[in-house]
Amino acid sequence: MQWRRMPAAFKSQRRRRSWKETRLSSSAITTSSPHLRSMDFSIRAANLDDCKDIARMIMELAEYEKVSDHVKVTQKDLEQDGFSKNPFFHGIIAEVPEQHKTKEGHTKIGYALYFYSYSSWSGRAIYMEDLYVMPEFRGTGVGKALINKVAQLALAAGCHQLNFTVLDWNKPSMDFYLSQGCFDITASMGYHCMRCEGEALEHLAQL
Amino acid sequence: MNFKIRRAAKEDCKDISRMIMDLAIYEKMPDQVKISHEELERDGFCQNPLFECLVAEVPEEHKSNEGNGIGTALLSKVAEIGKKKQCVRLQLSVLNWNTPSRDFYAAKGAQDLTVTEGWHAIRFDGQNLDNLANEAPKD
């Protein structure tokens, strides 16, 4: 099971340290869009109303990863699973002001999805399920701000690890994560990611 | 041989901790184990536990014997619990040299996503995690 509930102690810790919208200015190091060289964006906790945009960006990320037919989760699933009394995940949204909205009119231009997990070796951990920035906003510091925020929340909750996966052909993402100081534990330690789903999972549950 | 699978209780944490270390030794990384039964008791048996656990137990007369079907029973129970909570996936990781375990999971219908799709497991911990967190925008 991927989900974990956060204990009450963590919840009160998070309330004390609740973080407001944070405005950031960023000058891009490399970008193909000159108008984004100096750009405001904000990072904040996701709320129920963000689920439509999160669902949209989940699909965009799946298309980038060439697995869009795998996406079964809907906006309604996100609303139920992310914003109930004991949520299965938490979200962070990156947003730009109106004057920088996309040609389709979107101001929510990036997100991270994470949940709390547990390592039998190190204790409390965070698993980052998704990190995504819309193409036209890449290279402007949004992705970095999102992962920095996840890491900050991880430490605030007493976690000792931030874990996630990346596809081996996804060089821009792999390069980004390596530049931030991560370890590829598949390459360095030989861990393989395994999954049981569909009929195999049904069968296993009946044995 | 008789065995039973049941939900772990707080009192099991000393044995769970012992077996975590046994597993870490098997995986050739015993120095990576940083938590003891105390953390397991605190984190697994509070009001909103951070993990759930199943234990396999044999009767007194069979103590310390190896078993048949116990691994399958544990894995199946996890799958059953997941299904009851409408989970659609069971995910885990296994070391590439650990052939008996890889064969076991493959026989149970698990796909190796690292081989078939190229997924790599990535981690930030220790100083790297601290550095990443320290760069977060100040609230």
UniProtKB/TrEMBL annotation, chain A:
Q: Which domain of life is it from?
A: Eukaryota
Pfam families named among the record's database cross-references: Acetyltransf_1
State whether keyword Acyltransferase applies. Answer: yes
Q: Name one GO biological process term.
A: polyamine metabolic process
The family database entries (CDD domains) matched by this protein are listed as: NAT_SF
Q: What keywords sit in the KW lines?
A: Acyltransferase, Transferase
Region of interest (Disordered), residue spans: 1-26
Tell me the GO molecular function terms. Answer: N-acetyltransferase activity
Q: Which residues form the N-acetyltransferase domain?
A: 59-207
Classification via SUPFAM superfamilies: Acyl-CoA N-acyltransferases (Nat)
- Please report which protein family the annotation says this sequence is part of: Belongs to the acetyltransferase family.
Q: What is this protein called?
A: Spermidine/spermine N1-acetyltransferase family member 2
Q: What is the lineage of its organism?
A: Eukaryota, Metazoa, Chordata, Craniata, Vertebrata
Which gene is this protein's source? Answer: SAT2
From TrEMBL, chain B:
Name one matching Pfam family: Acetyltransf_1
Q: Which ranges carry the N-acetyltransferase domain?
A: 66-106
Q: Under the GO molecular function aspect, what terms does this record hold? A: N-acetyltransferase activity
Transferase as a keyword of this entry, yes or no, is: yes
Instruction: Give the UniProt keywords, A-Z.
Output: Acyltransferase, Transferase
Looking up InterPro entries in the UniProt record yields: Acyl_CoA_acyltransferase, Diverse_Substrate_AcTransf, GNAT_dom
The protein's matches in SUPFAM superfamilies, at most eight in alphabetical order, are given as: Acyl-CoA N-acyltransferases (Nat)
By sequence similarity, the record places it as follows: Belongs to the acetyltransferase family.
Which PANTHER family did the record assign? DIAMINE N-ACETYLTRANSFERASE, THIALYSINE N-EPSILON-ACETYLTRANSFERASE
**Which named protein is this?**
Spermidine/spermine N1-acetyltransferase family member 2b
